[in-house]
Design a protein that fits this description.
4-stranded mixed β-sheet; 6 helices
């Protein structure tokens, strides 16, 4: 099994990832969020700095793919109906389903979340929402939702995102 290279955008170096209670709800609920897309992590680090100060830092980790077999995994391969329900329930704080160690799937970034918000407010139907999401370029996220899952992550390095 191959090692995955994961990125986490932050306003600080995170050598030892931990599960921290967040003050807002996220796509996949409580957890430590990473991505396979380095540019996505860089952009997120810059957003975090605007909100909280600090320096835009990308933390780099490795994870052996065999971890997906060692942990309970919820995986979404596309923004389908199950993904939409899961994201909406997590974003609204109403998810009460099964807890997983790892969750993997598309990100509801700001642009995508506007579409999801229109759906939640009743302005878009479920099918119109899913059709709109199919034409968007969606990035990925891998969320570590348990200490067990986090025990498999290995910190590699970090760097400051430079403007331009």
């Amino acid at each position: 099994m191959a090692n995955l290279r994961l990125y986490h955008g932050s306003n600080q170096i995170v050598e030892k990832p931990a599960l921290i209670v967040q003050n807002h709800t996220l796509d996949f609920g409580y957890g430590f969020y990473t991505t396979l897309n380095e540019t996505q992590a860089q952009n997120f680090a810059q957003k975090v700095v605007v909100r909280r100060g600090g320096l835009p830092i990308v933390n780099v980790y490795s994870l052996n793919e065999s971890t997906f077999k060692d942990c309970s995994l919820l995986e979404f391969n596309s923004p389908n109906g199950a993904w939409l329900d899961f994201v909406c329930e997590n974003r609204s704080g109403t998810y009460n389903g099964k807890k997983y160690d790892l969750i993997r799937g598309p990100v509801a970034n700001d642009d995508v979340y506007r579409t999801v918000t229109l759906y939640l407010s009743g302005l878009l139907s479920r099918s119109a929402t899913l059709d709109a999401l199919k034409v968007r370029k969606l990035y990925n996220q891998i969320v570590f939702a348990s200490d067990k899952a986090l025990s498999f992550v290995a910190f590699q390095s970090s760097y400051e995102v430079k403007n331009g």
